[in-house]
Fold each of these.
Amino acid sequence: MTIPTHASYVILAAACSAAGFDPSAAEPIRLAENEIWRLPGQRAIVRIAPNGQSAAATREVKVAQWLADNGVPAVRALSIDQPVDVCGRPVTFWEELPAHTNGTVRDVVQLLKRLHPLPVPDFALGELDPFVRVSERIDAATSLTEADRSWLRQRHQELRGQWVQRPAGLPDCVVHGDAWVGNVARTAGGPVLLDFERVSVGPPEWDLVSTAVKLTATGAVSRSEYAEFCDLYGVDVTQWEGYELLSGTRELRMTTYAAQHAATRPEWQEEARYRVDCLRGRRGPRPWKWTGIV
């Protein structure tokens, strides 16, 4: 985990002061694109989003209330006036979950089965953009060679062009946008959905592809786990003609995420280079063995 900077804590402290919380004992949970802090004894989690993401943060809070209204097990936003803006960075406050572990593949599909049938809410969600921040991530990936970054840019443009003309699939619905085990917490009461940053309207196949890629590309999901996933949802997205497009897009996102942060995290540079090598055909056929990064 990244060591908190003074600037990070200043933003946290200002937001907590505005919202009526005490930041003095705050503990960093995860400091990446979004910075997540815990406020011990106050049952609150603080999420600091990147600059310019105020509209997205506002939408996340609305989504949390919408999920609560529809009985979907999900983390809840605290009932305060939020997000709080500090120097252009939107800060939101969430209920701290009880003791929990990481979710499972089964948990993911159970929650998607609750989410996907819901009617689209009466506030704007926007259409799914599977390429959000990809260009910025490539620009920031300064630990890669310029040749590799150029290849990633070309791959990005190729996939964007294909996305516009993607094959027809299941009817569009509300999608989570980043549905994987890292965004599900297993509590004593069952699985709970987390992170609503990418909730939007789009093809439900996008929510299914994250698990499928972990079978076909990274090897993190077993065949038996994936078979259960498909049985519970009722669809095997790998059999859809648009699968290669969606899986390629997901692989690109996973690679550019690692590459962006490798620029400031030397311990991630080998993994970032390995992922690029895999995409460029330098490390043999799928599935590859990608190491998770946090």
Amino acid sequence: MRHLVAVLAALVLSVPALTAPASAAAAPPAPTLTEVDFTGAVALSGCSGSVVRPPAYQRTDPALVLTNGHCVRFLEPREVVVDVPADRKVTLLDTDGEGSIATLHAVSLVYATMYTTDVALYRLAVTYGDLEAMGTRALELSPDQPAVGIDVRVVSGYWRHIYSCQADGYVHELREGRWTWQGSMRYTEDCRTKGGTSGSPVVDAATGKVVAVNNTGNEDGESCTDNNPCEVDEDGHVTVRRGIGYAQRTHQVVPCLTGGGRVDLAAPGCGLPEPSA
């Protein structure tokens, strides 16, 4: 993505003392960027993640952790896992990322897939209200498709590092090894993500909301192999961008989160794939 630049052309008139009318349209102000820190960020074994919530939620709802499907395990290309028991430790970071607030426990794998997207949600043994009592909060998931050119921050709880770049565009199909993902966000080259950043929340710097989840990058310039995803357009043309990272959008997850720390795949607007019969 590139920043959009508004260019105003001034009309040079030969008639003296003429000024622009008071109703003339002004250039829209540039978005104000928020200070993105490690609030809500978590570290998992080998991966990153974040505690997230939908826009509408109850303080008594169990808190959810967002990460990648491949951070659970390398799932089969069309596999979808829904609501199975889990026992996984999650380290909740403090705002500066230098220390931790608590070690939390995921008690259920609410959802996981690597089919068309690469996303997983864990349910914690604590509620959103419990998190607030600890002096922290969950990150809000944006229900809107993120625009091209927005400033984003990739917040890695594993590495305790924040990457800054823009959303450079969206990919028709992103292929890596056995997996194919649709509509993936491509970063500008400033976000040189690496192993361990998988599952990091991608935060819109203007709103502070999560718009995607980081999941891969082309490491060696190979085409469509493990750790070297390739882009495939509508006509089947393949493009390889060495060193470029990608994320999976999360706005389609929001309608699935109807409360109680569960995913309702039948909810109107839910864009997550369902298990095969």
Amino acid sequence: MSRYARQTLLPEVGAEGQARLGSAHVLVIGAGGLAAPVLPLLAGAGVGRITIVDGDTVALSNLHRQTLFTEADCGRFKADVAAARCRALNSEIEVVVTKQALTSENAASFVAQADVILDCADSYAASYILSDTCLAQVRPLISASVLGLSGYVGGFCGGAPSLRALFPDAPDNGANCAAAGVLGPVVGVLGAMQAQMALNLILGVEPSPLGQMLQYDAHTLRSSGFRFDDAPEPNSCFRFLSPSQLTKYDQIIDLRDADEAPTMAHPDAARVSPENLHDIDPNNGKRLALCCATGLRAWRAAEQLQPNWPGEIILVAASTS
């Protein structure tokens, strides 16, 4: 019996749908908690090519939610281990590994090669870089975020509104899983839903997951959803760039203190705390680059400075995936 017999029985799949899955190329950014259900579900379903992008290594503190890994994997690259699990699950598919972080420099080339992009990274910067890139290239993006006991998953771009259309302002909560904590099953639920939305998209199941938002609260065990097909794109936004994309003509501000970041994001950067933003001179006509660890402090600072800053303001995150 075919390995896909149980799913090809479904009228939404059949032989034609299975062929679609087999010819699809899915890009997965991040090989951590969300990817733990995403990757085996895509591999098991027979998605023909999966590209995994992640430059991080496995740590013991990952294992309660990143269930692709074991204690023996600690110290190994997540992308390598995740790819091996996918290949062991389905030898008929191709799994490609890139062991590096997503950046504004490499995002366009990654996105251009894929049919569907899944944002499984625990990074505000990576999510918005992906959204901006997918919007420009008209590629569908399935993005999820989890914190504590709640999270969301949504289908963006590819003809639907972008992540910025739904979340145009800086997030209220700057914490990540390392700072705020997270339970493994919450990540598993949202990751599994990401995989389902990706399969629905490839199979052409209606209504389309693009323009659909699902929110899940594990505390109450309730979920809710809504469509945002008509959400308008913001007129302007703060772009995320990499430190290597900054020039001598930029005014570069690192918002982190020396204890947090002994080495600044750029050799030409000056340290200014978020409490002392008034010290930044707005009259020099330069592009302003604001740097921090995740990009969130930089985004909030940019919102404060924008009314009085004559030029462009860009954001720099120390790491993006």
